[in-house]
Design a protein that fits this description.
Length: about 250
């Protein structure tokens, strides 16, 4: 059954097939050109990680069985390993070129929160979480990400003193700072503000294929990771409750 109500199954089928085929074409192209520059391979694997996140997003909207998404989580980790491999393979004079692909930008943090929402809610395990954290790095840059990393088991991690993207995530960070009893109300407030914080994109109204479903993945991650009682917001339109409660099904 579709979890998203703004597009039909055919739309999601087409988008998922496109993303899967795009990954396969990139893999085939790299295999056919083994001498391709390391920097090109780095960028290709970055894109493949991004496509893997998008596929899971679309599959959730389509109503797929969530256990089946573990394959995409494994794929994403393998692509991220290869991204680092090719970054390390850059000659010394090109090492600076990896910075923009590894530095924590807003879009990267949003994608990472989605990644960990799926990984943690689907119980991929401590070894998985730690390897992803090690590959992403960026310790001590953003308090929100660092606190999540510590909660995921990276207990020796340097923790930043402030949130890097305050406008986007300050309201969410308040959930961490609050007493447990206050967290449900603060998460509800974040969910109510989420669409506007995203920039009110209205992708579903555009004549494009940009829409993949409006889901606040970080709400799923925080709820599961901090054991927040979600009864106050369980039916909120942006809350991916099926992911949070997957282990109970």
């Amino acid at each position: 059954m579709l979890r998203d109500t703004l597009k039909d199954k055919t739309y999601f089928d087409e988008r998922i097939d496109f993303k899967i085929n795009a990954i396969e074409k990139r893999k085939a192209k790299l295999l056919a050109s083994p001498q391709v520059r390391a920097f090109v391979s780095l960028k290709v694997h970055f894109t493949m990680v991004d496509y893997s996140m998008s596929i899971m997003h679309l599959c959730y909207s389509r109503g797929d069985e969530l256990n089946e998404l573990k394959l995409h989580l494994e794929n994403a980790l393998e692509y991220r390993r290869k991204q680092k491999y090719f970054a390390d393979a850059l000659p010394p004079e090109e090492q600076k070129n990896r910075i923009d692909w590894e530095e924590l930008h807003l879009s990267d943090l949003e994608r990472t929160l989605k990644w960990f929402a799926f990984a943690y809610c689907l119980n991929m395990g401590q070894a998985y979480y730690q390897e992803v954290l090690d590959l992403i790095g960026n310790q001590g840059r953003d308090a929100l990400f660092d606190q999540i990393a510590v909660k995921l088991g990276d207990t020796e991690r340097e923790v930043a003193e402030s949130v890097l993207f305050k406008r986007r995530f300050n309201k969410l960070y308040k959930v961490i700072e609050a007493e447990p009893a206050q967290r449900p109300q603060l998460m509800l407030a974040y969910l109510e503000a989420w669409y506007k914080l995203e920039g009110s994109p209205d992708y579903h109204l555009m004549d494009t294929d940009a829409y993949d479903g409006y889901w606040c993945w970080e709400a799923a991650l925080f709820t599961k990771l901090y054991e927040i009682d979600d009864s106050l917001y369980i039916d909120h339109q942006y809350y991916p409750k099926d992911l949070v409660h997957w282990s109970e099904q």
